[in-house]
Amino acid sequence: MDKIFKVYSVQSEDLSSTQDLLDFEIPEGEMLDLSKSYVSINARVAGDGTGNHVGGIFNIEGVFEMVDAANSRTSDYVPNIALVKNARMVSSQKGMVEELRDVNQLRLLLKNVYESRDKYLSRQHTGLQGIRRGEIWGDLSPLIDVTSETGTGTGKYIDKRIKIPLSDILEIGKVTEFDTGRIGKCKLHLELDMGRLSAAHVQPDVKYFTTDNSGKKNGVLVNTAVAGPLLTAVLGDGTPKTYDEDYQEHLPYYVGMPVVVGSGTLDGADLSNAKNVITDISYNSTTGAVTLTFGTSFGTIAAAGTVGVMIQPAAPGDVTASITLGQAELVLHALGSNNKPASPPAEIEFMKYTLERDDGQGNKGFKRQYEVEPNATNLIVLEKNLSNELLSNLPSDGGYRVAINNELQNDRNVFNYNPLFYHQLSKFSLNQGEEINNVGNIQYVKNPAYDVAAPNNDENRGTLNQLNYIVQPLPITSGMKLVELDIEHSAAAGVKGLNIYKQVVSTI
């Protein structure tokens, strides 16, 4: 029978931009299926509101900075592998097993190309980012637990284990029979890109609550029956809005949600920007009406029928958000006696990547030769047009060519998304034994804008961008081979940082 065991990181403290290292000691004597093993890290968010928002549960999630502070871009929806910057595995018996630098840059590209939309988006339950999946008003963070049902308590921040498959980190992580009895005790060393991670309060689409018709039916407070403190409101725009019994699945409010008055008056007094927290949500099964109860009165009604106030979610600036990662562990899947091979393999052959960095220094025409390993079978070139960029979306608008041992592989320049580009991509994927599932190279975003008149809440949940990369299959040769890159840019920025990944055959 197979067994699962956990190896805790040598570093026990919480992770930060100054403590971003993890080391795991893998014991010897086990036959491991690394393809089912993963790194697990506990994630926790917190939010501190002010005024009448104190005690509220803000919609806080983790965000990744895809470039740098000067060129901030935090709308991308990316897998957890974006956390891993560098990785290395060493063995007490065999020495270096595999090392890969700039892990996240390579993996985000490969996942973008090889994974279908559904698979790419399916990791939400193991991640720390929310993404709109069906509801037009927005999404909820996977790091909070909320309810829209009466009597079930309030929302709360939760501890959540985020998962990074070992196969996403290193190529050795794809091996299904890793014999530590022969290889010996191993150590997995990770350097995390903690400087890219932060927390943010995600505000649902305000337009839904204000100018859109569906928002108006949900966002106006109606209290025309009783004079006195304004502590409750029936959803509607003059008459109660009716809901079915599954109202909690589609209601853009939850118990503990901080809200603010977008516009409206109470007995002639302007209530704009008044803060509050929803403390209860009740449903009338006879009328289908939903009533919100607030923690603090918005004011006192002198006479019935004088209230017309529209509420909306609290703004991001109303909270100080934070996220903490810690309690890291490596979850290993060990094969039981019934599943172990009768005779363990004498060697393991796998493909791994080596990295060479270069800098085009802003030249519009960049031409350079590189010596590439004899056993390299594929080449991936990622161009970083902005400082510290994870995923470039600026195309080589002048095209590119590749020559191997001074022989051009194409008789004309390759431009992004023309037939020759797809021909190169097809050859590359076939040489890797993979199937392309995203030929449009969609960059998935977390909260695409919604408009009732022109809905953008489509299944792609992303924007079509021309990701900038070069792929080239390589022949295996008896000696080092020369690979020449000829890249042209017409843009003023020219060619800047280059990450040149070479996929090579390796054995241990």
Question: What is this structure's SSE topology?
Answer:
Elements: E1 3-8, E2 21-26, E3 31-32, E4 38-49, E5 60-64, E6 84-91, E7 95-101, H1 103-114, H2 117-121, E8 144-145, E9 156-157, E10 160-165, H3 166-169, E11 178-179, H4 180-183, E12 186-192, E13 197-201, H5 206-209, H6 213-219, E14 220-222, E15 228-229, E16 232-235, E17 258-266, E18 269-270, E19 275-283, E20 290-294, E21 300-301, E22 307-313, E23 319-334, E24 349-363, E25 365-372, E26 376-384, E27 400-404, E28 407-408, H7 419-432, E29 442-444, E30 462-464, E31 469-473, E32 481-488, E33 495-507
Structure description:
Helices cover 10% and strands 39% of the residues. The mean pLDDT is 85. The chain starts with a strand and ends with a strand. The strands form ten sheets. It has a six-stranded antiparallel beta barrel with strand order 14-16-20-19-17-22. A four-stranded antiparallel sheet has the order 1-23-4-10. The protein has a four-stranded antiparallel sheet with strand order 2-12-6-7. With 508 residues, it is mainly β. It contains seven helices and 33 strands. The longest helix has 14 residues. The chain folds into two domains: 387 residues, Adenovirus Type 2 Hexon, domain 4; 108 residues, Elongation Factor Tu (Ef-tu), domain 3.
